[in-house]
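dumping this here before i forget
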Amino acid sequence: MDDGVLNHVRKLLRENVIPSLEGDLAENQILKEIHEDIKGIREAVLSFSAGDFSPPIRVRGIIPGCLKALQAHLRHLIWQVQLVEKGDFSQEVRFMGEFSTAFNNMTSQLNRTLSMLKKKEETLTALTENLRSEVDRRETVVEALQESEARFKYLASHDVLTGALNRVSFFERADADLKHAADRGIPCCVVMMDIDHFKVFNDTYGHGAGDETLRHVVRVIAEGLRKTDFMGRYGGEEFVLFFYNAEVTTGMMIAERLRAALEKNQVPLENGNVLVTGSFGVVQTKEDDDPDTENYMQSLVNKADSAMYAAKRAGRNRVLLYGEQYDGCTKPSTADS
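structure:
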């Protein structure tokens, strides 16, 4: 064989640049075929080395056939890897020897790991749902306890029948407001109110109607109070009121407004509306009063109570101020109240 032919073939196999066929070499038909075959094989191998398995291999023969088989395997492997990428770990490779074993072991391990993660996810989901249910249950219990606590606090501080403050709670709040007002030189009024002829009312209409009347009186008075005023049930049909920041004129005006509201708003009973009135006694605090004095609040209530009974002796359904001319009035009997 000519050394030039051998040298050309060697260049085709070894050099980066494909040599051209020139001179006598270009006339050699067998060499031209070998040249084209090796050129096609070079192009395919270069594409494979760059990761491109798409170019078609048009050369025939054992070596190109092997390259075509390798190309098909690699393209199929790429497709399987893409499936694994999408989460299909059931893929297996049977045509690449040790690589097949490693690939199959990898996908099996990934599949086992995925199964374990799914089980853990299911377990965590169940635990999360149980925890959420437990949290909801506890929140419900806490809300119920808070509502119950608020209810107990309300019942402990309010009269069950009328909703007004009970005597203890009224005195506690009034004592605090009196001290606050005294520190700032603010006048206040304490008022006692008693429903007129309530015993006769109960005997006439029954105690059920009497209970409704008590509730009615509290509703009417509460609507006429200012935001800083409050009332409590002193006992029976007697109520005590506290007017914050109210000198005599203001206290008498508020009490008169409440008296008129009671007279105007009759009690709705099954047999029709019934007129109910009240007698009011008002007392104002003095600048030299000491709210820290023992039973100070009770002494104000007693004075307001005296003025209230004077209002009853003077004809009921009226407002009297403590200290006005009613010295001849005495406390009426229970039947007259």
